[in-house]
Automatic annotation (TrEMBL):
Residues 55-243 form the Dihydroorotase catalytic domain. Zn(2+) 1 binds at H66, H68, D160, D313. The keyword Hydrolase applies. It comes from the Bacteria. PANTHER family: ALLANTOINASE. GO terms for cellular component: cytoplasm. It comes from Umezawaea tangerina. Its EC number is 3.5.2.3. PROSITE patterns: DIHYDROOROTASE_2. It is an enzyme of class 3 (hydrolase). The lineage of its organism: Bacteria, Bacillati, Actinomycetota, Actinomycetes, Pseudonocardiales. Belongs to the metallo-dependent hydrolases superfamily. DHOase family. Class I DHOase subfamily. Its cofactor is Zn(2+). This is Dihydroorotase. Keywords: Hydrolase, Metal-binding, Pyrimidine biosynthesis, Zinc.
């Protein structure tokens, strides 16, 4: 695939020296020419711009199926530009920008704007997600076909932030999505069960006097949607899975042949509702942080492939929307720059995933689910150079103020996490890390 006209000039040739594809075997050199992997092995190339890998792990660039970039409408919290920078620094080469902007991305004009801004910035491929229903109201289907056929080539539709709760509307959306060969990503939350909900329904919420968000509000919608998708022979993607019961439903649905895929967020793999005792709204998120048993079940489900991939649900919020009383605060947390490190902490250090597994859940599966032909590809000669280098032994301390996002609402503030993204390449061009001399 050729470089876009708006991208800065890419050096024709770049050498990654001493890198370990998938963290396996002895270090090799990888020569990238015209945005494509040209050679792998002991490469002798003089006078070529070189990135010294020092034995770092080389993976396919990450793909995030669930990012909130807040443009248009809340540029005070994130823009396509700042979010793209955060994504590149996090090792991402493609992100899917959710539709709950202002105006909502429920038409060709808005999705084309987001897509064009992404191209202009050029740090990561920004794919707009189209809304399923007009204004995210859950009543009338948006013009899915027009968005799919627009210049933005929308392939994922979601009312994320809201659940498409009317079963008739969801059924129609699945039927249309099948005809268009796109995927509907559902924010699974039965609204009648979460009126006023503030925290996972359980002991902790009871102790803190916060109204509960029951696991069944998620699980009942996932079960219903799996059946709707099965009968419609359509594809369904489940956003931010957060409970043991949802993992069980997915396992059952997949065994029956349902074309369902699912994502889990880094925060649901690492954090529990224990953190709520301080009443710090940085921990407020939808779906809520659950219990330790849920965290363990989610990790297992991801390792086994019952949950297909990790998606950040990167949700920037302004200080005034977070530094307030718990019930008034908006749900959501930053994720793009911390995702890899949290996955290393929760999945690699625990022995649940090796680096091949990380490539699968952060790059290959999300690219397949969204139908991206140039991302999540094998590290082989002739493949596009969408790549990330990770120093597996280094650690870093998270500081919200130092992240590239406009907002700083990270729940990992002050935590020392393993795994540092040192270089990201988009079609052979360095989008994060030191530009080689
Ligand atoms: N996850 C969140 O808590 N918030 C998201 C919406 C969403 O993903 O449901 C947001 O847009 O802020
Ligand atoms: Zn959501
Ligand atoms: Zn979201």
């Amino acid at each position: 695939m050729s470089a876009l006209a708006s991208e800065p000039r890419t050096p024709d040739t770049l050498l990654l020296r001493n890198v370990r594809p998938y963290g396996e075997g002895d270090p090799v050199d990888v020569l990238v020419r015209h945005g494509v992997i040209a050679e792998i092995g002991a490469v002798t190339a003089d006078g070529v711009e070189t990135v010294e890998g020092n034995g770092a792990v080389l993976l396919p660039g990450f793909v995030d199926l669930h990012t909130h970039l807040r443009e248009p409408g809340r540029e005070d919290t994130e823009t396509v530009e700042t979010g793209s920078r955060a994504a590149a620094l996090g090792g991402y080469t493609a992100v899917f920008a959710m539709a709950n902007t202002d105006p909502v991305a429920d038409n060709a004009v808005v999705v084309e704007h987001v897509w064009r801004r992404g191209r202009e910035v050029g740090l990561v491929d920004v794919h707009p997600v189209g809304a399923v229903t007009v204004g995210l109201k859950g009543e009338k289907l948006a013009e899915l076909g027009t968005m799919a056929k627009s210049a933005a080539n929308v392939r994922v539709f979601s009312d994320d932030g809201h659940c498409v709760h009317d079963p008739l509307v969801m059924r129609r959306a699945l039927e249309y999505s099948k005809a268009l060969d796109v995927v509907v990503a559902q924010h699974a939350e039965e609204p009648r069960l979460t009126v006023g909900a503030q925290a996972h329904e359980g002991e902790q919420a009871a102790r803190l006097g916060l109204q509960g968000w029951p696991a069944a509000a998620e699980e009942s919608i996932v079960a219903r949607d799996c059946l709707l998708a099965l009968h419609a022979e359509a594809r369904l993607h489940v956003c931010h899975v957060s409970t043991t019961g949802t993992a069980d439903v997915l396992k059952w649905a997949k065994a029956r042949g349902t074309k369902v895929s699912a994502e889990v967020t880094p925060h649901h793999l690492l954090l529990t509702d224990d953190r709520l005792s301080t009443y710090d709204p940085v921990n407020k998120v939808n779906p809520p942080l659950r219990t330790n048993a849920d965290v363990e079940a989610l990790r297992r489900a991801l390792a086994e492939g019952v949950i297909d991939c990790v998606a950040t649900d990167h949700a920037p919020h302004a200080v005034q929307d977070k530094d307030c009383e718990w019930s008034a605060a908006r749900p959501g947390m930053l994720g793009l720059q911390t995702a890899l490190s949290v996955v290393v902490e929760a999945m690699v250090r625990t022995g649940l995933l090796d680096w091949r597994g990380v490539a699968r859940v952060m790059s290959e599966r999300p690219a397949e689910i969204a139908g991206l032909p140039d991302h999540g590809r094998p590290i082989e000669v002739g493949e596009p150079a969408n790549l990330v280098l990770v120093d597996p032994d280094a650690t870093w301390t998270v500081r919200g103020a130092e992240l590239a996002s406009v907002a700083g609402n990270t729940p990992f503030e002050g935590m020392e996490l393993p795994g540092v993204v040192t270089t990201t390449l988009l079609r052979g061009r360095v989008t994060a890390g030191r530009i080689p001399a």
